[in-house]
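Figure caption, in words: inputs first, then the predicted bound structure.
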Amino acid sequence: MIVPGSASQELAATLAAETDHALAAVDFHRFPDGETKVTVPEPGDHAVVVASTVTDRAHVELLQLQDAAREAGADRVTTVVPYMGYARQDKAFESGEPISARAVARAISTGTDRVLTVDPHVDAVCDFFEVPAEPIHAAGRLAEPLPDDLADPLFLSPDDGAIDLATAVRDAYGRGTVDYFEKTRLSGDEVEIEPSDADVAGRDVAVVDDIIATGSTMGESIAVLRDREAAGICVACVHPLLVGNARTTLARAGVDRVVGTDTIERPVSDVSVAPAIADAL
Ligand code: R5P
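Bound structure (ribose-5-phosphate present):
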């Protein structure tokens, strides 16, 4: 039985339809002090908890769903974390800091037999889990909504860490070249982009990244591409976190289209990763 988190209802429903698993009607309750409680119906032998940890509350809810599924009789719990929060904190950058991705991975491991997570910031975060954990690579699906007639398309990543994602989208699209910019992060919401010497004038460009959070990475990339007279600019990401006024930042920068997946449920989540999760289950 698929057991959805409150932030992953749409994806869980699509996954249930895709796999013919039953979909649990979970009851979510909030106490006056802000604490939450879930009630999970009998899940049968195998519970598949599907919950993106987009907020700290969603992290706690995921742990509750795992525990409730076991309490309700599941012998086996598989945990699907479509978007894994804290995955970007995969090392201690200064002395005294935690490795937050490891801390949350350890907590999630206590309630499950297996973990699947979609395009984590780096695949190595899967090593932090203390049960078998695998990344699901779903970026290629971002090619689905792109029009067939892109002009001399360029698939660009804003830094070298996302080249594999840009390449996956290009491969799925079937034609085009791949390139990347260099990014320096100045603060939580400020980046500097050093463009490559790729000729973008008159070409349609898809900028591909794992996450759009504040939109500053994509905003700066779009500004460079506009300066260099790219024809059309689309930005595509696996995890459309889109915090604060990120969507406005992208619009003001002059993007033509924003494409994301349903690992995080936002108005731009036009692409479903359910088929990729179904294959991995
Ligand atoms: C960082 O390395 C990630 O790959 C993304 O580039 C980053 O999370 C995007 O953040 P923002 O939208 O705040 O620039």
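The CA atoms of residues 63 and 159 lie 34 Å apart.
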